[in-house]
Write a structure and sequence with these properties.
This protein is about 25% helix and about 25% strand. The protein contains 5 helices and 8 strands. It is elongated.
């Protein structure tokens, strides 16, 4: 459970964000009208708010209970480690790189190029700037490098990553950043997009 003063700050901010009174926020969250006002108005410090109450408010508002409205991100939830090649994320890639990507894709549906931005797989030889060819039609097997999406279900925000697949987990292999928390594939919060079928490394 988060601290009382943090809970009060969060509830106050969420009510303001939703433009609702505490009673309205409680009712809309499926709680008794006085649940939040009783806690917020308590000066004795004896009243507490339960995780169940905070979870109900978070579900209704879509604001995670440890994140203030407007911040909209969870601790450790950063920007995507890979970006689509077609999005213009490479600065004027050489023509041979464009040709190589096009040749690798050919006429195959579901094969896309992604540009690696992070160091999550440097121990496997995947470095920032590498172009990873991902086949969305290939079924992943143990040891494959996969492109995956990590979703924050409360906010709908998603982060795209490259990881090694060791069923049922996704793992990083990095000397630079060290080990990261294993992510369990559940096809809900953690979804595999496709499997690596080739790497193109542009030269500077």
């Amino acid at each position: 459970m988060i601290e009382k003063h943090d809970s009060k700050e969060w509830l106050r901010a969420v009510a303001q964000h939703m433009n609702q009174s505490l009673s309205e926020l409680a009712l809309n969250s499926g709680l008794a009208a006085s649940t939040l006002t009783r806690f917020m108005n308590d000066r004795s410090g004896k009243l507490t708010v339960t995780d169940r109450t905070l979870d109900a408010v978070a579900r209704y508002t879509g604001v995670p209970k440890n994140v203030l409205p407007g911040q909209r991100s969870l601790p450790g939830f950063g920007e995507s480690e890979v970006v689509p090649f077609e999005a213009g994320n490479l600065e004027a890639p050489p023509e041979w790189v464009k040709t190589a990507v096009a040749a690798h894709k050919g006429n195959r549906n579901g094969v896309d190029a992604w540009v690696m931005k992070g160091w999550a797989l440097d121990l496997l030889g995947i470095l920032p700037g590498d172009i990873i060819m991902i086949d969305q039609n290939r079924r992943p097997k143990a040891g494959d490098i996969v492109c995956a999406q990590l979703r924050d279900l409360a906010t709908g925000r998603a982060e795209t990553v490259m990881r090694r697949y060791e069923p049922p987990f996704l793992l990083s292999h990095s000397a630079k950043t060290g080990p990261s928390r294993p992510e369990q594939v559940d096809d809900d919060r953690v979804i595999i997009i496709g499997v690596e079928v080739g790497v193109i490394r542009p030269r500077n």
